[in-house]
Amino acid sequence: MDLNSKNIFSSILLCLIAVFLLSCSEYNKILKGSDYDLKFEKAKEYYEKNQCYRSLPLLDELMSYFRMTNKGEEVYYYYAKTQYCMGDYYLAGYYYKRFVKNFPQSYRAEECAFNAAICMMRNSPDYYLDQSDSYKAIDEFQLFMSKYPNSVWVDSCNTLVKDLRSRLEKKSFEKAKLYYRMEKYRSAVIAFKSALSEFPDTQYKEDIMFLSLKSNYLYAENSIDVKKVERFEETIKSYHNFVDSFKNSSYYREAENYYLSSLKELEKLKTKSNGI
C-alpha cells in the first residue's frame, strides 16, 4: 500500500469513527431524555434497521410509561418483536402470548398468537435432546389453528407441525435403537412398540417393525427355558405383523430366518418338555 492509499484509508476510518461516535452520542441523548414519543419513534426506527440492541433499552422504559395509554398496545407489540429479534425466544414467546391475552380484540392478536408458536418451535432442540419444547410447539400450533381456522398461516402451521413430528419420530426411533445396540432387547421391544403406537404412520415403520421382530427373537434366545416358549411365540407374532405390512421388504429374508428359527426352537422345547 502506497502513502496516498494509506492516507485515503486513514481518512475513511476517521470518518467512520466520527459517524459512530456521533451516532452513540445521539442515541445516549435520546435514551437519557424525557421525550417519550421520540423514544418510541426511534425504537421503531432502530427495530426496522435491525438495530434491536438499541431498540430494546428504549422499549424497556416505554413498556411501563405507555402501559395504560393508547400507545400501550403498539409498544407491547414492538417489545415482543424486539425480544424475538434479539434471539430470546422464551421471552419473545411469553410477551407474544401476553399480548394476545391483554389485547384479544387487536388486529395484531392473530399474528402474535402465530409468533408465540414460532417461538416455541425456535426453542425446540435437535432430535437427540429433550423434546419437551417440540411437544409444546405442536400444542401451540394446534391451538392457533383451532382459534384461527381461516388464517393465512394455517398452511405454515401444518408444515411446521409435520416437521416437529418428524423430529419426535426420529427421537423415539433412535431411543429404541439405542436399547437394541446396548443389547437390552426387552427394553428395545417396549420402546419400538411405544414408537409405533405414538407414530403409527412414521417414516421409520418398516425399520421399527423389523428391529422389533429381531429384538423379540434375541430376547427369546437369551431367555431361560421356562420363558422361551412365550417369547418365541411373540417373535412369530412379530414376524407375521411385519410380513403382512411389508411383503416386499429388503429385510424379508432375514425376518424369515428368525421366524423359521423360532419354529425350530419351539419344537425343541416341546420335545424337551415331553421328555423325548
Commentary on this structure:
The chain is mainly α and 276 residues long. It has a domain at 36-119: Serine Threonine Protein Phosphatase 5, Tetratricopeptide repeat (Alpha Horseshoe), CATH 1.25.40.10. The protein is 79% helix and 0% strand. It contains 12 helices and no strands. It has helices at residues 3-32, 36-48, 52-65, 72-85, 89-102, 109-122, 132-147, 154-181, 185-198, 205-221, 225-245, 252-273. The radius of gyration is 31 Å and the shape is rod-shaped. It starts with a helix and ends with a helix. Mean pLDDT is 90; it is low at 5-23.
Number of strands: 0
Query: Main sheet, how many strands, which sense, barrel?
Result: none
What is the CA–CA distance across the termini?
98 Å
Overall 3D form: rod-shaped
CATH topology title of the domain at 36-119: Serine Threonine Protein Phosphatase 5, Tetratricopeptide repeat
- Please tell me the overall pLDDT: 90
Our count of helices gives: 12
- Percent range for helical residues? over 70%
Structural class: mainly alpha
Please mark out the parts with pLDDT under 50 across 5 or more consecutive residues, or reply none. 5-23
Task: Please describe the structure with a list of short key phrases separated by commas or semicolons.
single chain, Serine Threonine Protein Phosphatase 5, Tetratricopeptide repeat, mainly alpha, 12 helices, 276 residues
Please render the helix and strand layout as text.
Elements: H1 3-32, H2 36-48, H3 52-65, H4 72-85, H5 89-102, H6 109-122, H7 132-147, H8 154-181, H9 185-198, H10 205-221, H11 225-245, H12 252-273
